[in-house]
Specification:
The chain has about 525 residues and is of the alpha/beta class. The chain is about 50% helix and about 10% strand. It has two domains: about 210 residues, no CATH class; about 240 residues, Alpha/Beta hydrolase fold, catalytic domain (Rossmann fold), CATH 3.40.50. It has an eight-stranded mixed sheet, with helices on both faces. A two-stranded parallel ribbon has the order 5-6.
């Protein structure tokens, strides 16, 4: 194999500058490996740990740079990109699974930790080993180049989702929230192609494409600080200076938590409690409660899943770790079902529980939620639920339903539907589809289809999560809600705009978008509970 001219070196000796750089970065790998274990033993969202997270990211990039600079090919150089990609995908998949499981998953969490450490471990070992020149078989090289080509095609598609807001369906939720992990997968492909192509011009083109794709996937992560600054400004203008509590997140974003997940909560869970049943439908809820609490009453958070009013369900379809997180914060959290409509043919491509579907209008769905509020009022003592401190939250269609419910209860004119014993203290809709129901043939009362028509000066304070690149619910829908509130004299509305974020970009619970919003959401609820 003839080495590229600009990399050609004797395979028997490594330039001294490269050798020193290799040993230095290898030593840092070892230090970060040890520091990471310390973090795993006592995970925290303290801002100081972001130093570790930042160095971890730089190290992964530096390890790739070392592979590119190495004047000859070794076995490690071909395996490291695969290990890096597998580690990133493993962390993303398992963190999502852990977040959306009712039970704790300690074995899965251990695998996540191993996946985090694996690139550091392999890079550390490689640094201090003398590896021989390795010439991959020509057919093997062709197979690898074809594989990288497919990865690049996927990278182009994912990049278009991040940069250009057009409708992609469920994949939109995956790409933007996992973008940093995917960025390292595409970086791994770039490293690999750099060791497979001998032609300088082709290497420049292929490497440049890979770096562009990687950079685009890093954009959402790099915009995190501006997200924090903008949301902090909105929060202070609409409410007041965010309060602090020892149980709150200590910083709006933890880089290590993005990779290895957030700590699991030790709480009580009751699943599939029936709150309504007739010949047509049976509705259930899950309730998440603080464990062994001595408090006589707890504030309540009611969460309503999305799914275009025709699909979705409680549980894994509704960011379950959010329920567990706030139960650990002292709330009684209800994750509820409602009837799903057959009146629309719109399809998000997600599961539809067949026992919940029927020709339901918007009025019917809100009637189902109203039945739950009456059940809650009747059974509040069983769950130590404080009816004078209730919050509503939901995403997309669930955000619209949560908005309509909260505003209708506060309005006081719908006591035939909702319990009049509930006091709504706050509303937290995620990308609420407040203007979308009519467009997909959902029928009902005007004020229920477009709940901003229910806004009054006395409407509850509202904190909204909204992706700027959401192709299903335009960011202007959230802005319209705020404008209407201001018009009515209600200034207590803030919007957390998430740069590059698509629809359902909060579904990766330890993701940068969700962490930032969670930091302000818990303070918002504490302030008004």
């Amino acid at each position: 194999m003839q080495e590229p001219v600009f990399l050609r070196q004797s395979v028997t000796s490594t330039p001294s500058l490269y050798k020193y750089l290799n040993r230095f970065i290898g030593t840092i790998n070892v230090i970060v490996f040890i520091a990471s274990i310390v973090y795993f033993l006592n995970p925290s969202t303290h801002a100081g740990w972001n130093v570790l997270g930042g160095i971890y990211i730089v190290l992964l990039l530096s390890n790739g740079l070392l592979i590119y600079l190495k004047p000859y090919t070794t076995t490690f150089m071909l395996w490291y990109p695969f290990l890096l990609a597998i580690s990133m995908l493993t962390m993303g998949i398992l963190n999502y699974s852990i977040s959306n499981s009712y039970e704790a998953k300690p074995l899965m969490q251990m695998v996540v930790y191993i996946a985090f450490l694996l690139p550091l471990f392999v890079a550390s070992i490689s640094t201090f080993l003398e590896e021989r020149y390795f010439e991959p078989h020509k057919l093997f090289k062709i197979i690898l180049i074809v594989m990288v080509g497919f990865v690049y095609l996927l990278g182009f598609y994912f990049s278009s989702i991040i940069v250009v807001p057009y409708e992609h369906g469920v994949i939109e939720a995956i790409v933007t929230s996992f973008s940093l992990l995917f960025g390292f997968v595409f970086f791994a492909a770039t490293i690999l192609i750099s060791k497979l192509i001998d032609n300088r011009k082709l290497l420049f083109i292929a490497g440049g494409i890979g770096l562009i794709i990687t950079s685009i996937h890093f954009l959402p992560f790099l915009s995190t600080q501006s997200t924090i600054v903008n949301l902090d400004k909105q929060f202070k203008e609409a409410f007041q200076e965010p309060t602090n509590n020892k149980s709150f997140l200590r910083h709006p974003f933890s880089i290590p938590a993005y990779f290895v997940g957030m700590p699991q909560q030790d709480i009580q869970i009751e699943k599939d409690v029936i709150f309504y049943e007739d010949d047509d439908i049976t509705l259930r809820f899950d309730v998440f409660m603080p464990k062994e609490s001595q408090t006589t009453k707890h504030p309540v958070l009611v969460r309503i899943h999305g799914g275009a009013w025709k699909s979705g369900d409680k549980g894994a379809d509704n960011v379950m770790q959010m329920n567990k997180y706030f139960a650990d914060q002292g709330y009684v959290v209800y994750d509820i079902q409602y009837g799903l409509s057959t009146l629309t043919t719109y399809d998000l491509g997600i599961d539809t529980p067949m026992h919940l579907i029927g020709p339901f209008t918007m009025d019917d769905m809100l009637s189902h939620i109203g039945i739950f509020t009456n059940y809650l009022a009747e059974h509040a003592n069983e769950y130590k639920a404080d009816l004078d401190s209730v919050f509503f939250s939901g995403g997309s269609a669930g955000g619209q339903l949560a908005t309509a419910t909260a505003l209708a209860i506060e309005n006081g004119s719908y006591n035939d539907i909702f319990s009049d014993t509930i006091t709504v203290k706050g509303l937290i809709p995620f990308y609420p589809a407040n203007k979308s129901a009519r467009a997909i043939n959902i029928t009902g009362r005007d004020e229920f289809l477009e709940p901003e028509n229910l806004i009054r000066e006395s409407s509850p304070p509202t904190l909204i999560y909204q992706g700027k690149n959401d192709s299903l619910v335009d960011w202007e829908t959230a802005q319209s809600f705020k404008d209407k509130s201001m018009e009515k004299g209600n200034k207590h509305v803030a919007i957390g705009y998430m740069p590059f974020a698509g629809h359902a970009s909060d579904y990766y619970f330890p993701g940068f978008y969700n962490q930032v919003f969670l930091y302000y959401m818990e303070r918002f609820m504490w302030m008004y509970k």
